[in-house]
Amino acid sequence: MQRFGRRDVLRLSGVGLGASAAVCLADFGPQNADTGPGAGLEDVEITQYGIAHTPSADDETPDVLVIDSDARARATVGFHSAGPSYVGEVNEVLRAVDYDESVFVLVTSVGPTTCHHQLEITNVAVEDGTLVGDASIVRRERGACRDRTTYSSALVRATVPEGREPPTDATFSIIDAWNETHSVSASADDSLSPGPVDLPGSVRPDGDPAIVPPALECDTAKFKRLDGPPHVTWGDGRAFSLRVDRLAVDRGDEVTVTMTNVTDERKGTGTARQFGLEVYTEAGWQETRGYTTEHFGYNDEGILHDPGEGFEWTLEMTAAGLDDQGHRDLEVCPDLPAGRYRFVFSSGSIAVAFDLRE
């Protein structure tokens, strides 16, 4: 799903290494800095990532990310994220580091063709406690150059002399393929995931609902309506946030709800099926779905979400459309009345709301 800009996708999807980012790598491997280690450094090693494309091309701003711990490396690059032919190199680079003496900086730039797939890193040094350096995207012919926005990254490992602490701030001067220079700064304290205020979408409409339908009643024999949670958290939980793309829809329209891990750590939830869709009636909040089978339950399965990742649900606001969502044993009864609806995800009972118009 495409929820964030290109910079977020690179940070949150294993720096383009994960299969979900639909990327292509080229020229992966170590590269010595042309000028060697600069002031304040014992050694500099550069590992290239040639990224042919990413899910989103709406951000052409170069980026810098500081990695100063195993936990931060796992959350950004991820030992598990590389494809089969690259996992050995990724593991070797990341697992060989001692963060008491080294720090990684991930530098990313952008070019207009698939031949702009490598970064040249020079002049890496420590100045006033900040790791600095220059980066420029390099065009290298490798057969036909296709016109496609290309994001190239380099992982810079900077090692300080014994007895010194590695810097946790970095500033790189990055020249993109259009010869424009960008000064980009980052810190090891920067968040790896978007904050709740940065997420697109809404939590719920303002004010009371304009329409409150009668209590739901179903004529289907043996129909057992699901019970909703007694209390919900609107929008933002302790680790996850929910947003809805529209606050009002017409019957038959689609509404999309997204859940995002807004922490800097991998967090777990139940499956995507475990949600409720309730409508506010004269009897209070009531689940729109139920079952006629003798027993009903969800699989006891856990799903892990990296920082910035989560679930997305697209619901067609008709009885038939909702019957295709979630558990196969659930059905909508009666048909959906106009009114205010509440989507609740079971893990944390986080909710968003929207109105269904007449």
Explain this structure.
The protein is mainly beta and 358 residues long. It has helices at 6-12, 70-76, 87-95, 319-323, and strands at 29-32, 43-51, 63-67, 102-113, 116-127, 130-139, 147-159, 169-175, 181-187, 224-225, 233-234, 240-244, 248-249, 254-261, 267-269, 275-281, 284-287, 289-291, 303-305, 310-316, 331-332, 339-345, 350-356. Helix content is 8%, strand content 39%. Strands 11, 13, 16, 17, 22 and 23 form a 6-stranded mixed sheet that branches. Residues 1-35, 51-58 and 79-87 have low confidence and may be disordered.
Layout of strands and helices, then pairs:
Layout: H1 6-12, E1 29-32, E2 43-51, E3 63-67, H2 70-76, H3 87-95, E4 102-113, E5 116-127, E6 130-139, E7 147-159, E8 169-175, E9 181-187, E10 224-225, E11 233-234, E12 240-244, E13 248-249, E14 254-261, E15 267-269, E16 275-281, E17 284-287, E18 289-291, E19 303-305, E20 310-316, H4 319-323, E21 331-332, E22 339-345, E23 350-356
Parallel strand pairs: 6-8, 11-23, 13-23
Antiparallel strand pairs: 1-2, 2-7, 3-4, 4-7, 5-6, 8-9, 10-18, 12-14, 14-20, 15-19, 16-17, 16-22, 18-21, 22-23
